[in-house]
Amino acid sequence: MSGMSGTFVGMPAFPKAAHDAVRNQTLRANLRHATHTIRDKRARAVAELDDWAGLREAGRQIKDHALRHLDRYLIQLEEAVQAAGGTVHWAADADEANRIVTRLVRETGESEVVKVKSMATQEIGLNEHLEARGIHAYETDLAELIVQLGGDRPSHILVPAIHRNRGEIRDIFVKEMARWGRPAPDGLPDTPAELAEAARLHLREKFLRAKVGISGANFMVAETGTLVVVESEGNGRMCLTLPETLISVVGIEKIVPTWRDLEVFLQTLPRSSTAERMNPYTSMWTGTTDTDGPHTFHLVLLDNGRTDTLADEVGRQALRCIRCSACLNVCPVYERTGGHAYGSVYPGPIGAILSPQLRGTTSEIDASVPYASSLCGACYEVCPVAIDIPEVLVHLRERVAEGGPATRRGTKVRLKPAKGHAAERAAMRASRWLFTHPAALATGQRLAARTRRFHPRTIPGPGKAWTATRDLPTVPAEPFRDWWQRTNGGKDADK
Amino acid sequence: MILGRVRRALGGPTGEPATYETDIDRGYLREHGARTTEETVELLAENLADYRAIVHRCTDEKLSEVVMRLLAERGAQTVLVPPELPAYWIKAVDATRIYDHAANTPAELDGVDSVVTACAVAIAETGTIVLDGSPDQGRRRVTLVPDHHVCVVRVPDQVVSSVPQALERVDPTRPLTWISGPSATSDIELDRVEGVHGPRTLEVVLCEEDGWLQ
């Protein structure tokens, strides 16, 4: 699974992984069913609110404001959490975060922890780090449990086991639960209700004896020091309230300035995420409370590439993300390839702009995911914080193909163009020349239109690699500019 | 080190964010639609039921009878009682009352059949009840471990229309639990199934104060 860097070890570049994934019929059917179900529901949930556009814009502004003043709000948050009885730790990267959490667990004398589903701890590979040091981390979210029991990798932000159908889940439970604790009931059927019941029984004994809980958070309020976890199953409540010690690992970008700001996100997140007016359970806690819940609370603030992302004025908007996963559910590429092809705990359109920024574009997979998009823009349309994903994708493609300035681990560097993108650079240079020489463009387009029956489906020579994964689009019979002039901008369309 | 990186990324320390008020356009609605108080309560009942909470309505006078009936129908032998739950709510209840002490382990609560609590506020637009750990609601765990939760909402005082209105009413320094229907999951084929780890049955009693609606 994910290693220190967060890359899935040995992950092939997106085109290879996607090539294999789209040939998996079960996977494609599972994904198509799930994404289409949620897509329609989300549209209905959003349509209930007349002021959706206003909420979306306010969400964007709140997050942008918090990011622009991030140093100030982080200090305010630290003070508020400590005043309320919590302890704050700072982790510059995955390794430091893992070492802090390991130390905190060891200080309790415990060798097992229960976990709330958390993207941040997935990102840093916490479970593997703990396991290697003799601490067992039990995932308690149903989908995370399916992934953990199946020795699998997550493929969706909200529903990491979205690639599994009910029959596969039943088989995993029957085969694996006994090794981890209470076995699956005899004759377990594959109805979702029975599967959920099996998970309830399996996990309850773990909740009741757990002394240490580990979570992430959806939001941190700088003004009050309050952390917020939004969930459905109640496993979050179990992990947040029953143990004696709670450790929360949270990315520094999860901060919002004020308590009032939650009024925006508590309306937009559930509707975008599970298409509900409100998710079943939301927990909010501020430090520790006498005789209610954990008496020790640690907050580990995680950078791990976030400040590098913040340094990029185009790319920093990815830090607005509230991890709703609406962009995955509408993406035509995600629907066909699934999440594993993206080689990261952050798959789909948001993953394609987040992973290469958090991890850099030096690995083959991270250099290829910005190309895993048709730039159709559906992701931007549904994004509740208006992240212009296509804009960032194009920006990152340019960085991969042409290199240029970037920030890595807090230091400004100059990236070299990635290997294998020579044809792309040549094409970009050519298009730049053409667009600044309109007469040449017009001549070229007319020539292309008249010779189109001779066009191959792939480009010969150095362009071959580019077209190995794409069919060349058909050239229309008449260039758009000529059509526009001939028909007076479409007004004389019958001409 | 992280703060240093943040400041370098932003081109220097950012100082007091004097622009907070002007940076954010609060043009969105404080509540959706115009409703009478009665209609707001009706919407709360509808939305609670839509997410599979079981809704009951009664007057204050009938409350103890209703609570008694709900626990009896459930066959509850034991019921968890927060320290300052109004005594008359459960005066007719037959089940053995269990009090949650700080020294109790979660495992000791696991065998209790039901729990009865008040709430801090209820949100009509989303069908949500919010608990803030006040003495009539108890510790967070009492509404988590038992499989059956009966929650009494005082109508119309505790009912608001919207999420923004609810946030204004609750105290962030208290531990808060927002509950919208019984626990659920969408993790199997993104299809919603009720009942995973929290109480699988949530009954909400909308208790109308005497004289309301006249």
Structure keywords:
A: 495 residues; alpha/beta; Rossmann fold; 2 domains; 12 strands; B: 214 residues; 6-stranded parallel β-sheet; 4-stranded mixed β-sheet; 6 helices; 23% helix
What report would you give on this structure?
The complex is a heterodimer of chains A (495) and B (214). Chain A is α/β, with parallel strands linked by helices and 495 residues long. Chain A has two domains: 1-419, NagB/RpiA/CoA transferase-like (Rossmann fold); 422-486, no CATH class. Chain A has 23 helices and twelve strands. Chain A has helices spanning 14-21, 25-47, 52-68, 70-83, 94-108, 119-123, 126-132, 142-149, 166-180, 192-209, 235-241, 262-273, 306-310, 326-330, 332-337, 348-359, 364-368, 378-382, 389-402, 422-435, 438-450, 464-467, 480-486; strands spanning 87-91, 112-115, 136-139, 212-215, 219-221, 226-231, 245-251, 255-256, 281-286, 296-302, 404-408, 411-415. A six-stranded parallel β-sheet of chain A has the order 1-10-7-4-2-3, with helices on both faces. The longest helix of chain A is centred in the N-terminal third of the chain and has 23 residues, at 25-47. Chain A is globular. Chain A starts with 13 loop residues before the first helix and ends in a 9-residue tail after the last helix. Mean pLDDT of chain A is 89; it is low at 1-5. Chain B has 214 residues and is α/β, with parallel strands linked by helices. Chain B is built from six helices and twelve strands. In chain B, strands 1-12-7-4-2-3 form a six-stranded parallel β-sheet, with helices on both faces. In chain B, strands 8-5-6-9 form a four-stranded mixed β-sheet. A two-stranded antiparallel sheet of chain B has the order 10-11. In chain B, strand 5 and strand 6 form a beta hairpin. Chain B is globular. At the A-B interface, helix 2, helix 3, helix 4, helix 8 and helix 10 of A face helix 1, helix 6, strand 9, strand 10 and strand 11 of B. Strand 9 of chain A pairs antiparallel with strand 9 of chain B, so a sheet runs across the interface.
